[in-house]
Amino acid sequence: MLSQLRGGNYEMLIIDWRVADLTAVELFRWIRSEFSKVIPIMCIANHADEHEAVEGLSAGADSYLIKPIRRNELVARVKALIRLAYPSQNVAEKFAFGDYLFDTRACRLTVAEELIDIKPKEFSLALMLFRNLGVSVSRAQILEEVWSRGTVISSQTLNTHISRIREKLRLRPEGGFRLCSIYRYGYRLDQLSVEKDAEKSP
User: Fold this and answer.
1) Which of 115, 141, 176, 182 is the most exposed place for a label (fewest CB within 10 A)?
2) Percent of the chain surpassing pLDDT 90
């Protein structure tokens, strides 16, 4: 693997925490020391261990995923890391999700053409949730994408940002979207079916 890394051209690496012959931490540090190009690294672990996660991220990993791997989350995490690593490939500056329009250049958000008063971190967090619509995102993933790697924030700070986004963007069932928390994991934004809502109405 090491010899192939030296001779190949890779856009991203997905590496299991249990590596033969050396530790994952040693491998991450070797990759970061050998390559001038910053290659995104995703670490795959067998169980949730906060110590291992911190150790791996500190050694150079960019993301951390726990087995069993859920396909939708894996795809979403890979796309997120690619966007961060190769920003020049992201030509789109505006993203539309129904009535929600995100202008990334101006950090401007409108809902049904109404300008929303939103702070930069709230904007980034809201855009991330919409770009992962229907997919559960972990707290670790949110911290990696919205806050810079190595930044430590409290659970209360993240909860406060989520609460503000829910209120400002009106992400409630009556508005067609539902932003809910997932116990001991993270959050999920879903777009509700109008037909299903109509069936539930008396």
Assistant:
1) 115
2) 20
